[in-house]
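User: Is it possible to get a 3D structure for a protein together with its bound compound? The compound here is 1-O-alpha-D-glucopyranosyl-D-fructose. I've pasted both below.
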Amino acid sequence: MNKIEKEWWRTATIYQIYPKSFCDSGNKGTGDIKGIISKLDYLKTLGIDAIWLTPIYQSPMIDNGYDISDYYNVNPDFGCMADFDLLLEMAHQKGIRIILDIVVNHTSTEHKWFQSALGNKESEYRDYYIWKDPVNGQAPTNWESKFGGNAWELDEKTDQYYLHLFAKEQADLNWENPKVRDEVKDIISFWAEKGVDGFRLDVINLISKQQDYQNDYQGDGRRFYTDGPRVHEYLREISDAVFNKYGSVTVGEMSSTTLEQCQQYSALDSKELSMVFNFHHLKVDYVNGEKWTQAPFDFLQLKTIFNHWQQGMSGKGWSALFWCNHDQPRIVSRLGNDQEYRVESAKMLATSVHMMQGTPYVYQGEEIGMTNPGYTSIEQYRDLESTNMYEIMLNQQGKSEEDVLAILAQKSRDNSRSPVQWSSAPHGGFTKGIPWLEVANNYKQVNVQQALEDENSVFYYYKRLIELRKEVEVITTGDYTDLAPEHSQLFCYQRRSEEQTLICINNYYGEPVEYELPMNLVIEQGKYILGNYPELLTDKPQRVIKLRPYECRVLLIEDH
Ligand code: TEU
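Assistant: Yes, that's possible. Here is the predicted structure of the complex:
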């Protein structure tokens, strides 16, 4: 595995910023680039190696920037190009790399290409998008948009539909058209030339659609465009032309994908991408794969998925390790205990993925154990997916408003988009104005200022996780074995390399539990290198361990 030592991102930790909710330098009520610049020293203290910025480009913000109308200019809500250039320069001065979000499965319908193509079959940009004639007076296929409703919208002037896998304001690009692929290369090259260090590729495994556009009588249509027929060809083309030319680190967001596909996307020869996000572990609280439901999470399924991917990607591909992002609820509320055991369970959940092989991503606020905001009325929500689904669940599925609001409080993407809580000042110190989205009501207790003043805070625990990845080689190169796959509350796995054995033990529940370490482990040579009940670190490891509620421990055995 000597290739692993070579690339910086194999031992790095990447921090995700959703600019709209990160820090407002003024009183607009929305975050901006100047606000990010003001927090670079905080991020340096945390010890992260790179920042992934979600889209900062010009956009009507229907989908908060994932609907891009101009790839070459900064959204004035966030600032100007000079602000970005300053952020890039100052981040680099502090040894922090910058990764930008590239959304090229679709553009905004406000983009000049789409505006030219709409209502005009002769436009030079018509074939940049996917247009189909009606079938029996209806949409060309029965595919569903991921935000609810049909995935096609009629252009009445030309009596053709255009495809939109997401909102109708997000028109899918036609990657079959080489001019589209050339435009994408130009966009990425523009930002790479400025010194951007890498790119996160939004739903990049959806760009190649099966060209027969048939109805789906078994599902919502995703099987006809997910990991499609030419996706690897397209990625190799872009990689050769741009990513490998600039040495960019790349991470692909893979929607509904498979292990085999991800082994290919992130193969160690980097012909396509450096690494991939997959979401299988974040569907264990879905009922029959349906997100908009309420259910306790399936713990055994979670461990099975982790085992499948850790063992499957070992020596073949490279995973982005994460719990949180701007689309997912806060993990401490979702799988932990955001009340009595908020600190312990936040640390335990972090440990259980940060000791795995891959590159960990920390989402803004996760490092201080931020929780879901607990909204109680639809007026508090801003995300179009959530407001669409509110209407659908209420008016098409017949659910009660009480049930719908309970589901939104658990699953809405706004759960992760409430502003970062910097201090106990009004609105958590996020803005001097009125925030675009309400701050969680626990900001006086849960905030960065409090965390920095508490040596046992979640913040300093994340800082230690980030350091350990650089200090302990087995975390990066070791194999993976689940030591208790059937255990109903313990997630306990082993990482092993030639010189080191690491045991990561996590109690996922609020009840105490005993665990006996396998006899073949020479624990006399071991020492605890991390734990979320601080006093244990001086303990001498015992064969039988008594774990307290949400307790985790990391045991390292140096095999000399
Ligand atoms: O997300 C794609 C994706 O898979 C999620 O949108 C998921 O389908 C959705 O959250 C429903 O659970 C990416 C971006 O991360 C997301 O913010 C964008 O809305 C989406 O693509 C469209 O660009």
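The chain has a mean pLDDT of 97. Residues 63, 66, 103, 146, 166, 202-203, 253, 255, 291, 326-327, 385, 413 surround 1-O-alpha-D-glucopyranosyl-D-fructose (CB under 6 Å).
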